[in-house]
Amino acid sequence: MDPVDLERFLDRELKALPRPDAPQTLLPRVMAAAVRQAGNPSPATGWSTWSAGWQAAGVAALMFVVAGVGWLLSAPPEPVSDMTRTAGETAAVMRLFWDVLLQPVVTYIFILGLSLALACAAAWAALEFALGGATQQ
Amino acid sequence: MTDVARFEAFVREYQDMVFATAVRLLGRAADAEDIAQTAFMRAFERFDEIGESATAAGWLKTVTTNLCLNHLSRYRARWRFFSEMDGGRETAGLEARVARLTSAPEEMERAETQERLERALRRLPDHQRVPLVLFHFDEMPYQAIADTLGVSLAKVKSDIHRGREALKQELSIPHGSR
Prior knowledge:
Number of helices of chain B: 11
Structural class of chain A: mainly alpha
Number of strands of chain A: 0
Helix content of chain A: over 70%
Largest interface: A-B, 38 and 52 residues
Oligomer: heterodimer
Order of helices and strands of chain B: HHHHHHHHHHH
Largest sheet of chain A: none
Distance between the termini of chain B: 54 Å
Helix content of chain B: over 70%
Distance between the termini of chain A: 28 Å
Shape of chain B: globular
Radius of gyration of chain A: 31 Å
C-alpha cells in the first residue's frame, strides 16, 4: 500500500471509529465544580455577577479599607510616624549606595548580561538547527 | 430554567464530543476527563455568551484542543511513565463497549478492527498521535499543525507518516492490499 492509499484508508477508518463516550463521572464532577464556583465567585467574573451576600461582603471590605486609610492619613499614630521616618532614612541610605557603588558600573553589567543572553540564544538556535527540530517533541 | 439547569443540559449535550477530542489527543481517559472538566469550567465562566451560541461546539473543541496541547507539553515526561503503567486499564472500556455493541459475526469483526485501531491510536507516542489526530479528525492541514505545535513542516509530515505506518502494522494490513 503506497502512502497515498494508506492515508485514504486510515482517514476512512479513523473517521468511522465510534466516538468514545464520556465517562459517567464527568457530568457530576463538572456540575459539582460549577456549583462550587457559583458559590465562590472569582474576582475575574466581575462584581456585578456576584451573589448578594458576596457583593455586601465586598462593599464592607472596601469601606473598611477606605476608612483605615483615611484614619492613617488624618492622624497617624506614633508607631506609623516612626515607621515613616525609618523608611525615609532607609531610602536615603539606599540612594547613597546606588550613587556611590552601583551607578558607575550598571552600564557594564547591563551590556554583559545582554551579551550572555544573546550568546545563549544563538547557541540554542544552532543546537535546534543541528538536531533538525527533534528537541521540540 | 435556572442557570445551573441550563448548564447541566449544555454539559450533557457536549460531553461526549469534548471527551472524545481530549481522549484522542491525550491517549488517556483519566487525563481526558480532567481536561474535559477544565474546558467546561471555562465555558461556565462565560456561559452567558456561550450557552446559547451557535458556535459553542467549535469554541469548546478549540478550548479542549488547546488545553490538551498545553497539558502534553507540560506533563509529557510524567504522562509517558504512567501511560506505560496503566495501558491495560485504559482499554478495558473499549473492550466492554465492543462486547456491548456487537452481535452478528461480521459486526463483531468490524468492531474488533475498530477496537484495535482505537487502541493502537492511543498507544502511539504523543508526537505521532497528536498531529495524526489533528490531521484526520480535525482536518487541519499540515502547515496549520506545524504552526500549532511549533515544529517544522517536515517533522509533522514525518511524524504523521510514522504514525500511519505504526497503525498499519497494528492492523496487520498486508503489503499491496487495497
